[in-house]
Amino acid sequence: MRRRLPPARPRLDRDRTTVENLDSLLSMDIVLPIAIGMGAVLLMRMMPRLLARGVSFVPPKTVKARLDQGDDVLVVDVRSPREFAGRTGHIPGAVNLPLDQIGARLKEMGASRGEVLDTPVYLVCQTASRAAHAARVMRKAGFRDLSVISGGMQAWRGQGLPVEQGNAT
């Protein structure tokens, strides 16, 4: 009985041209899933910036410096009250305005929000995705000086910056 050999896999050959070698690599079964996976990762990393077109992303240390200088800024944490008060904590002085409540809360503020439309507002969530979405909503509501804290609370804590824990303000 004759033994069946598995189908031959393409392999690189030094005598072949680069194009021929590239063609061999592209014909491998694994290249397409890897390319799709890399594309998905890239898209996920860029999603916050795509959502918040026209809004700047600032490093956590820039926000910390402005807070330390006593600048008139507002830090808005758009995570749920449970996340805000939980183990991860929140930026000292931050106001909790959950993303799912922003539209209704802005309507409640009505004309009184005119007082803060020009105030620099820094938006934060866990990673920056929800904050980017909130920036889009707030820009439509007339806020002019919006920024998203790059990397969110993960980056803030990762850089050893101070956090508070406890109930939402």
Brief sketch in words of this structure:
With 169 residues, the protein is of the alpha/beta class. It folds into two domains: 18-47; 52-158, Rhodanese-like domain (Oxidized Rhodanese, domain 1, 3-Layer(aba) Sandwich), CATH 3.40.250.10.
Describe the structure.
The chain has 2 domains: 18-47; 52-158, Oxidized Rhodanese, domain 1 (3-Layer(aba) Sandwich), CATH 3.40.250. With 169 residues, the protein is α/β, with parallel strands linked by helices. A 5-stranded parallel β-sheet has the order 1-5-4-2-3, sandwiched between helices. The chain has 7 helices and 5 strands. The model has no long low-confidence stretch (mean pLDDT 81). Helix 2 (31-51) runs parallel beside helix 6 (129-140). 42% of the residues lie in helices and 10% in strands. It has helices spanning 18-26, 31-51, 60-68, 81-85, 102-109, 129-140, 152-158, and strands at 56-58, 74-77, 95-96, 121-124, 146-149. The N and C termini lie far apart (79 Å). Keywords: Membrane, Transmembrane, Transmembrane helix. It comes from Roseospira marina. InterPro entries: GlpE_sulfurtransferase, Rhodanese-like_dom, Rhodanese-like_dom_sf. The chain crosses the membrane at residues 25-44. Residues 69-165 form the Rhodanese domain.
